[in-house]
Design goal:
The protein is mainly alpha-helical and 234 residues long. The protein is 74% helix and 0% strand. The chain contains ten helices and no strands. Helix 1 runs antiparallel to helix 4. The chain is globular and about 80 Å long.
Length: 234
């Protein structure tokens, strides 16, 4: 059985703090591209001392969700959840080759959708604060008008929920990855995948962003061509 490295506690806590920060940058303090996966990868790389590896992992998530941006009431998948969880697993277990890194990426991907649902739930929780604010505006006396209190309460609530959710989720993923490694389930041939394979696969998100039916046909045609070529050259 593969044990969990001593660095796991630091990595999980650091990733949880970064996830909380980048989740705030999505809606509470929107600074544009600052909350993108590539920026997250750069920050993680600076913390861990391996910028190239961290940015390579982040590029997969950047390309995969290139099409999904916040618009109106739509809450896209929280790429920070999947990206930082994968970064944490890669660092904790010392993965360096794409053939093994693909597993942390796949394990972490669902967290992006779960985190977006959590953000939606938090918005529903704030309906009470909105009703309180409307009540204040209808009163002649403004003595109880303290919108700053509602804002601080919402931010503290969000930070607590985001941090605890990610801490629990990544801790479970670390334990799961340790179990899988201990049973020999994450030991593929090192030449099975390259970074090019992962990035090309992730560009599916960019192709879907085109919204052009012809691009989808071209993608399907290209995939069939590659499959046929593999049969004749394999």
């Amino acid at each position: 059985m593969v044990g969990v490295p001593d660095s796991a506690v630091f990595c999980v806590l650091a990733a949880s703090c970064l996830f909380t920060l980048f989740s705030f940058l999505r809606f509470s303090l929107n600074l544009g591209i600052v909350e993108r996966p590539l920026v997250q990868g750069l920050v993680w790389g600076l913390l861990t001392g391996n910028v190239t590896l961290a940015v390579s992992v982040a590029l997969v998530f950047e390309l995969f969700w290139l099409d999904l941006i916040p618009a109106g009431t739509f809450i896209p998948p929280n790429a920070a959840a999947g990206n930082l969880a994968a970064q944490c697993l890669v660092t904790v277990f010392g993965f360096s080759d794409p053939a093994r890194i693909v597993f942390p990426i796949l394990l972490a991907l669902p967290l992006a959708w779960i985190a977006s649902r959590l953000e939606q739930t938090h918005r529903h929780w704030q309906d009470h604060g909105y009703n309180v604010l409307q009540g204040w505006l209808r009163l002649d006396s403004k003595a109880d008008y303290t919108p700053g209190l509602l804002l601080r309460r919402a931010m503290i609530q969000a930070a607590s929920v985001y941090f605890l959710f990610f801490l629990l989720a990544v801790s479970l993923l670390v334990a799961l990855t340790s179990w899988l490694l201990g049973h020999g389930l994450l030991h593929p041939p090192l030449d099975m995948f390259s970074w090019g394979h992962l990035w090309i696969g992730a560009t599916l998100g960019g192709l879907l962003a085109l919204r052009v039916p012809g691009s989808y046909a071209l993608l399907a045609l290209g995939a069939c061509g590659v499959a046929v070529l593999s049969l004749f050259t394999g």
